[in-house]
Amino acid sequence: MKKENFLWNSIKTGMLGGSIALFICLIGMTEVFSKRDVIEKVITLGQFVLLATSVMTGLIASRQTSQLVGENRSLHRLTAGLVAGLMTGVVLALFVLAGDKVNIRAVFLNATPGLYNILTFEKGVSGVWVLPVISAVSGLIGAAFLLLPQAAQKPLTQATLFLFFMALFSGLFRVVLINQGTNWEKIAKYLYGQTGVTSEGALIFFFAVVIISVLWSWRGQSVKTSVAHLPKGGKLTLRLLAFAAIGYVALGLPQVSGPFIAQVIVTVALFILMGLGLNITLGFAGLLDLGFVAFYAIGAYTVGLLTSYGPFGLQHISFWAAVPIAVLVAMAAGFVLGLPVLGVRGDYLAIATLGFGEIVRLLAGSDFLAKYFGGPQGVIGIQKPCLGVLEPFVKIDVPRVCNGIELGKPQDIYYVAVAAALLIAFVAWRLRESRLGRAWMAIREDEDVAEALGVNLIQTKLLAYMLGAAMAGLGGAIFATLIGSIFASSMQLIVSINVVSLIIVGGMGSIPGVIVGAIALIGLPELLREVSEFRYLLYGMTLIIMMLSKPEGLWPSQAAKRELHHVEASTEAEL
Amino acid sequence: MAPILTAKKVTKRFGGLVAVNTVDFEIPDKSIVSIIGPNGAGKTTFFNCITGFGKADEGEIAFEGMPIQRLRPDQISRLGISRTYQNIRLFAEMTALENILVGQHIFLNSSWLSAVLGTPRVRKEEKMALDEAQRLLDFVGLKGQGDLLARNLPYGAQRRLEIARALATKPKLLLLDEPSAGMNPRESEDLTAFIRRLRDEIGITILLIEHHMRVVMGISEQITVLDYGEKIAEGTPKEIQSNPRVIEAYLGRGAATEGMATAHERHSKKAG
Amino acid sequence: MRTSFGERMLDLIVSGFLWGIRILIVSVIVIGTIGTLRTGQYTSEQWIDFVVFGVAQGSIYALIALGYTMVYGILRMINFAHGDIFMTGAFGAYFIATWLTNTGFVDANPVLGLLIPILFAMGIAAAIAMLVERIAYRPLRGAPRLVPLISAIGASFFLEYAFRGFFGPGKYAYPPIKALEGSWEIFGIGILKVQIVVTIAAFIMMAILYFIVMFTKVGKAMRAVSENKDTAALMGIDVNRIIVSTFALGAAMAGAAGVLFSLVYRQIDFFMGFTPGIKAFTAAVLGGIGNIPGAMVGGLVLGVFESIGPSLFLEGLGITRPYQLKDAIAYTMLVMILLFRPSGILGERLTTKKA
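Above: the input entities. Below: the structure tokens describing the complete assembly.
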């Protein structure tokens, strides 16, 4: 590789990075993110994202020169990073200059004065040179990072990620800590600002993680082995302790966190339920169902119609009696919708189910069926679950009185939702390990061969549909009582896409993956209002990236993991 | 011996092409029978007709006296016919053990509900299935590799795993589609011995498609030769070797360069 | 026979159920139609109106459907993002058209005022489609079918929400062309000028595309690649380049459709591509996916069916506000065609034997 060649290459990479940065600016991300700090008074989230782009560009440009040989190799690599970072900044600077002459805002809504202010650090056009300089330095940092030994790279990356994570959730941690009492409040205010960490907090977090990480790489292996060598009883105690700690946190969490966090967790739990359901059809049996939200809607409407004290309530039974019925109705719907489409293969199945889902939504929201489902006005006045005795129904629009504890608030529904998610996760795990689970996976892998081995395709696929639908129906049932009303318009295709995405992020067929995926894709955007505006954009990107890089997902499925262990064991044996 | 499988005037067409043309065929019980013929002679298509993958257009196939040409593949497999595939078709993302367990599907009766509840009966059944799968794994010489993903097994092991999976359905008739493809002479010798063991020890009737003449001639008790979808000869290996029509249609074309022909076929299979 | 009673029952239920659906659909259509025609509440002029609107609408669907059908023909993949490519075309045209209208250019040269935004939309749509193909689809060739489909779904959402980021969630009013306001009298029936122009424009575009595919070198190469990629490559065809041009050509048609759609409906937003996208896919399957004339026929059939359907057979069943279920009719057609005749009404010219 010649020298000019590598410079030109870095310029190209830098321009690509610049285009990505420009894209981030133009979709409005920079401005929205600038309302939030990563480190108070030092760097905003918006700036952080742009700088991270420059750092990554520098890093990538520097990596591209890795084939370069010669005595000045590290110098070349640093130059590459510098040039690429500079170019990233130059693209943005050119944009600012262009914006000064032409009204870009006439087309792109987000080319606002606010954005120009951010990009020029509030200095106007005269400050246009600042960004390229900072970008170039960032690019250099990215390149320099690559030159560090691996032992240094790891703690630095971990510390940066942890700092970023702490900053993103500073609001959450701050509130939780402040609620613990005055001493904690002082600590909270020392570490966390209003929208980010304080500079003191940043230093503490960063160095704490660096130290822990270094210590772990130094002593971690011996800790692991000493745990592994614990007697059986000791291991069990350790495990029980861990479970007890998790259980304690899980039980107490809604009490300290307040209704908002509880509601977020309930939403996550509902998506875990749907995710586990779709994981059966998509993850186990390999049938992509884009109309999955229909089963959720059916579960929700069943509970709504059976328990509502509003005008559409058919019956006025208690939530607990309605839930099993909702699950059965959803299952029956899975049977009815599953029957015809099972002969359809692969990609056509996805589109056919999408069609089904849309038909269900259109019918439920239409005036034609409004006298049954409330049409666009939806079903309102859904009875809250009651632990105790429900007074008989009196008249419309008057909720039944609960003699006992009414689970009305999100903090209360939390327990129902989390318990349901745990129960269904257990069911899904048992199914996976059963004869049926193996038959599903065989169908996913090669349905002709599975059939030739005696697997009845219709029966097995139908069961996948029905059980998946039942789980989604349970989710819908809890959703109905959480919100207290249901509208057809909330049963959009996007919900199905959400579920598909979380399964893919978590790893097809993996049960812990569903949980991780739901927390990452549903929980985080709910907590971060700034991110939630861009969540579908990020979902889209995630789906593409997952397909390109790791179609099996973030969390390896059981089979893949079992094999990893096997490989480890055999290499150990060889040693 | 009474035939375990009889095919009468079986015909299969793809559009204008007649892949199998009015073939009459019988497999004596507990025998080893081979089908040979040049590429495209309709051997695999005939296999597919037997196992229900592609239904025969005309004719009748009976297994133990019962007509099966209208049944679905899963029903046929329950009657006791199992097969392997020319291009190995394992469940790639499942472990070796799970592959075999799928083969036992038809012998497990637990419903999904009892599996969720984990009733003692289910546990017992699973335990037995697991033991049986382990036994089959050992039987085909893959001891200790049960936890490996099927796609990561070496080629020869994949072939053997496929046979183990087919055996898990406890077949009375086992159809092997070019089991020795891609094997060196030593390996195919082992395979020949293994196939014989299947018949002698377990009493499974074997129907074989094979290109390696050494394997075919060494193992078969009866050979059927197909050419352009038609049966042109049938008999013992000796009879086939001296049959002028076979020599003309098949051996004549490739006998001298048999080694090359198989090598070429293997190559073209990879490309296709 | 070891087949259990339960299994046989299941088979019976499946086939009975499928027949039930067929009978239900047919009886809905027949009874509803009789019901409506009996009341005679629509004049023949109104029916003609419905049909004309359906044809205009359907020709737009057909134009979008071409992209689905060509890409499926060549790669056997459903380009889920195609509907959003259509949306990008509409947005691209919007800014040019607004500018041209404000400068008074459109009023002075209505033909160019229509043509320039169309060309611009085609260019934008083609460029974006090529980008999407390069990033999200090309590395996934040869992967199991669900993988590119999911990537395409990702691309679809990425495009939608990127455009939402660029231009906001609101609706934009597409500038009307003054020369296309009002209606023309044809055989004594007044027909909106816009509908006529849109239909004609769509047909011209389709004719151009048909010419390209049938008679140019690129088109012949496309057909060769869709028959067999390996053989085509051996004949010296640059398969990658042909695939990219297929995407670009299909996207250009979708971009043009975006402008025509905007002329009819007068408003655009980032989500506008979803429903027409699904409907165009329905049209493509209806005509036999992979079959170019099929896509055209499928689009027209769907457009007309969806336009007259609510009044013709839903109203006759006593359904209130049947036009709310217009989309449901299209989706029902989609599901039915996938269930009962996935090879389409004209049959599948490009078979999926090897897929």
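Note for the figure: The longest strand of chain A covers residues 386-390.
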